[in-house]
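Supplementary notes for students who missed Thursday's class. We covered one full example, reproduced here. Read the sequence, then the structure, then the short commentary at the end.
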Amino acid sequence: MSRDTEDPIQHAGIRNRPLSLSPKQRTVAELTRAGKTCREIAHDLHENLRTIEQIRARIMKRLDVHRASDMVRELERIGFL
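Structure (token representation):
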């Protein structure tokens, strides 16, 4: 099976490794997609702001992107959101 016909979720970013998100990571990604800031997400989820920033940063690092908008775009592209 060539890379073009494989499941896009299995090949996110440049690392060619399966992408999986924890429930908390998925929630942060979905709220980011909805246009919420880290501060708003932290308030909504009753979490520390730094925790949310770290969760978002880990997702972006795995996708090899540097902006939240690029993170959302990439997750949508691979069918994760």
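Commentary. The chain is about 55% helix and 0% strand. Residues 7-14 have pLDDT under 50 and may be disordered. If anything here is unclear, bring it to office hours.
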